[in-house]
Amino acid sequence: MGRVSHAQAQANRRRVVERASQLFREQGTGVSVADLMKAAGLTHGGFYKQFASKEALIDEAVIHAVGELAEHHATTLEEHEGDRVEAQQALIDGYLSVRHRDNPASGCPVAALATDMARHSGDHGAHRAYTEGAQDFTQWLATDDEDGIARLCTMLGALLLARATKDSPLSEQALSAARTALSVAPQPRV
């Protein structure tokens, strides 16, 4: 089999990073390299042509996921014509939905990767990107009355509990209670 072009190698790398980002959010960073490559439609042997280590891929995948989160925030604000209060409420409602609960692979990396990032040291790119993403998220949720941390903690806690109790009434109760608690949107910080 012949060598792939530089452009194809770059496209393959992007595909692995995107797929890893999804799988890590869905299953955690313990997913094997063989399973990652299979999910990306590539062979296991090609992994080390693209990445120095699995840790290097974790770094890139988390950076990618956090970038998607920032893009989602910008898009939400744009969809609400710059009305930050409306955009924040729409994001909160979507975040605390059954759809988000049931789709961690395309959901918030701050919630999905919390346990994995707690096990990584601050020296890794993944941990730094995760921390910066969480800080940016709190700032996005900030209002005149608060810095956004309590809102994010409420959202994360409710989503994690809802995922952990998915097959019980408690799951939807957690989402609903958090939506209710966060439904009064004070004026955002300017």
Supply the key terms.
globular; 190 residues; mainly alpha
Query: What class do helices, strands and sheet pairing give?
Result: mainly alpha
The average pLDDT is: 91
Task: Enumerate the spans where pLDDT stays under 50 for 5 or more consecutive residues.
Answer: none
Query: What Rg, in angstroms, do the CA atoms define?
Result: 18 Å
The total count of strands amounts to 0
In whole angstroms, the N-to-C terminal distance is 58 Å
Strand content: under 5%
Largest sheet: none
H/E element sequence: HHHHHHHHHHH
Number of helices: 11
Helical fraction:
55-70%
Q: What is the 3D shape?
A: globular
Task: Please summarize what this structure is.
The chain has helices at residues 6-27, 33-39, 47-50, 54-79, 84-95, 98-102, 109-112, 114-119, 125-141, 149-164, 169-181.
Provide a descriptive summary of the structure in words.
There is one protein chain. The protein is mainly alpha-helical. The chain contains eleven helices and no strands. It is 69% helix and 0% strand. α9 packs across α10 (149-164). The longest helix has 26 residues, at 54-79. The termini are far apart. The mean pLDDT is 91.
Ordered list of secondary-structure elements with their pairings:
Blueprint: H1 6-27, H2 33-39, H3 47-50, H4 54-79, H5 84-95, H6 98-102, H7 109-112, H8 114-119, H9 125-141, H10 149-164, H11 169-181
